[in-house]
Task: structure prediction
Amino acid sequence: EDPIDGPWRLEVSSPGMDRLVERTADFLRFAGMRAKVRMAPDWGRRRYTGRLHGLSDDETSIKILVGDDEHLLPRTQVDRVLLDLTPDEFAALGKSGAAIEGKIP
Result:
């Protein structure tokens, strides 16, 4: 029995160029790629845009390179992390979602 009254259409899509990065495996897989980090409101600086450098050894903090400065951001204070991909980088991810070769510059 159909649980939805009336006509409907199911659409399935893949994450786009602004793909969400949440899991430990995501931070490791996308290391070296550009990302935008939004911090919790009570954190001093609210936004960071740079290259992901993975996680701290204990996996409690995100490493992001902004210019020449590496920042260590506590995961408990991170509101959201989105990849900031170019069309070429997005195409290179392909169906597998694997990161591009030669990750961290």
